[in-house]
Amino acid sequence: MKIFLDANVLVSVLNKEYPLYTYSSRILSLASHPNFEIYTSPLCLAIAFYFAEKKHKTQLAKQKIDLLCQYLKIAGNSSKGVLDTLFNKRIHDFEDGLKYYAAKSASCKCIITENAEDFYFSEIEVLNCKEFFNRYLLN
After folding, report:
1. pTM above 0.85, yes or no
2. With 80 as the cut, is the pLDDT of residue 139 above it?
């Protein structure tokens, strides 16, 4: 299953933000599981870096992003995704549109975010970390 991690999920892992870290770290660990492909986007990595840098300083934040990039697949933010975001009248937040079209370009089946309401326009399943964990990992 291909899943897309939003920036807020990455931030929770990089900064060990509890109680979300309990779920987000387990979801991120699926990157080594043969049944899952874990994606994010350059935009999500940039946002995650910003918040990691605020907490851990630049050098450690870069090391953390480098480590993430060794395990995650990176879905592209293409010019098509930019245009699709601009012209989709249902999308009001440009940033969320870019994330959505990155996930869509990678054929992700689920977007994991703590702000599911931001993806009200999504044709892809959107779950928070706990919902994903309960639906796909507890069976």
Report:
1. yes
2. no
